[in-house]
Amino acid sequence: MIQTRSWATSLACTLFLLVLAALAVWSVLPPAPRAADTAADEFSAERAFATVEAIGTEVHPHGTAAAAAVRDQIVADLRDLGLDPDVTEGVGMSGRLGDQSRVAATTNVVATIKGTDSTGPVFLVAHYDSAEVSHGANDDGAGVATLLETARALGAGAPLRNDVVLVFTDAEEACLCGAEAFAHADPRAAGGGVVVNVEARGSSGPAIMFETSDGNAALVDAYAKVPYPVGSSLAVEVYRILPNDTDFSPFLDDPAGRFTGLNSAYIDGSATYHAPQDTPERMSLASLQHHGSNALALARELGNGDAAALAEPAADDATYFPVPGRVLARYPGSLVWPLAIVAVLAVGALAVVLARRGDVRGERTGAGRLALGFVSALLPLVGAVAGSMALWWVMTLVRPGYAEMLDPWRPWGFRVALLGIVATVVTAWFVGLRRSLGGPALAVGALGWLALLGVVLAAVTPGGSYLAALPALAGALAGLVAVTVARGTVGRRVAVTLGAAVGVVVLVPIVLLFFPALGLATGAAPAVVAALLGLALTPVLALLLPRGRRLAAGLVGSCAAVAVVALAVGFVVDPFDAEHPEPTRLAYALDADTGTAHWVSDEATPSDWTSHYVSTETDLSEKFPMFAEEVWAGDAEAADLPAPVVEVADTVPDGDARRLTLRVTPGKGEQIGTSDALRYVQLNARGVEAATVAGREVPVDDGVLDTRFYAPGEDGFEVVLTVPAGQPLDLRVVAAGGGLEGLPGFVERPAGVGVAGEHTSELVLVGTSVRL
């Protein structure tokens, strides 16, 4: 860790790290889309895009005529491929949202590509319904198109050993119910198998393999053979603790553990997610190509493997991450703790060597300085978090509509600004303390925090330990070589640069992937990873950066200037306009019993447009339980909307209880809102002992019933409740439609104001209470 006097060598080392960072970025970028005249046995994004255009031009949520048209298109396309698709009806249920159960009648499309000697099925899964206000071109038109083009390419190639079952599910956006119905009751799923789910949350970016079943080592080995592998075991760990779900979740939740599998999605451009702007013209064909190339390769790899063995969890999870060359580096989970411990020992050894030397090229390295260097190295991590929070505060102060978004429409200016902030924090810490503590002490302190975090992550999220442990280990070993082995300044510079290179390879892709994954609204996560990169590069700063104050101050100033300029550019290039509107959420709630109506918004702070309708934070949960917390509300004129109807079809004594059979209908067959189908009917009651909805038993916790049935249609659905004999039951029933046009007092949004991609957007509620 000796300062270089050779500008040429310093420049060469710097350029090496910059080129390596560029290669690390390139390794996770999607490939160029392939044309329609690509070989028949390969995936072509242009060919697949024809499907996206066919199904992504109309909003098509579960239960609508538009969804039925999409389903018919899928059936026709499968038949054109020479397959014999089944249209299977069922009832699915999800209980993943706390105590609430969600039920839907579903219609899946399933087709099987028969294998030559199947050892078990490989299920390729995508959903064909869209969110309530979305065209669904990306989510999940991309998945549907990927499955159809993959099936076509498989048919043009050599037959596979195993059966490949194409599953196009219904009602994913509502409740994951199509996938649950398939996993629960479809005979093709009875023996379990390997599941590959294909999703999209946004409109661009690399297709990331972000979720796996437990014991994923064998599946990760299979995934590593795709042409463009992008995934991190950290992402799997993070997703497992997030409250997010896809159609992959019902397979993972299978009580018999019959399924293993992988889940992939591209996730950048999240401003389109579930929004009306999720249209074909906003899709990145490169992202679609990435999805398809990997899905096709994975189908062939799994289709020719031992599917029965792959359907069983491996002994442990693998640690894996992308490296330059389109390679997925991986090692067994059993090495997580040994590597973390060795990293701590290596940093400790480096600290001991430096403490004994006492001085390196004029910079003192006593034990006291090393200890202070370690304590001070916490500052960049804290500063990165504070800087990310400050950035988001400024962004929402200048443009309040950002508070309703995960990311702006065009986020890259702001992302560069955040990187500039982190770079400013790291360099200011190093430059500010270098004269008092010395570069070697700061470098060892930085590596010490990386090693410590490697141990913490090994205990909490083992798949993420590599992010800190590997850079710490490489940096410490490089430091030991530089101090005790290398002769001359060139050898020492090369050693330290190679040690830092590991941090670049490991951390740069994760910084890039974390930006769209968690968004600038939670920018602390990518900021912390960027700060870890800064800590991993600290030994290089200590070696290559001259100790002159002017140059050091210039470096800090340059980083700060990048942050300021990028922030300004972000605001300039990302105004709200008709094509990139400010998202707003507005609902209408009518209590049919009292004739009282409210405009409702669950925006964090009402936008200027929403403020014309709502003004006061109000608790509406008693009448409308879907608003579990206080929401913004305002008085509205009562519309002439039909209330849901509950009819008692049968009452049967059952010991100390009575069993009620009810028929629940939306209300006289009339429409609620302007959507062509009811979204759902929600039922809430206390004092219920047991309940079934549409034939599926739903959970009842401590006598509390909280359930929804999606898209019930004019005929409604059957509910059977077991309640104590001799006691009345108060049942709250709320029917939810969609579309505010035509309601008294509603004025169409102006240009630049749009509909947020949320389930509460354009929601129309009519509630009534029934005593039984």
Identify the notable features of this structure and list them briefly.
single chain; Aminopeptidase; Immunoglobulin-like; 15-stranded mixed sheet; 5-stranded antiparallel sheet
User: Whole-Å distance between the termini?
Assistant: 80 Å
The CATH class name of the largest domain reads Alpha Beta
Please outline the major beta sheet: 15 strands, mixed
State the domain count: 3
Low-confidence stretches: none
| Helix-strand makeup class | alpha+beta
Helix share of residues?
40-55%
Number of helices: 20
Shape: globular
CATH overall fold name of the largest domain: Aminopeptidase
Number of strands: 26
State mean pLDDT (0 to 100 scale): 93
CATH superfamily of the largest domain: Zn peptidases
> What share of the residues does DSSP label as strand, in percent?
15-25%
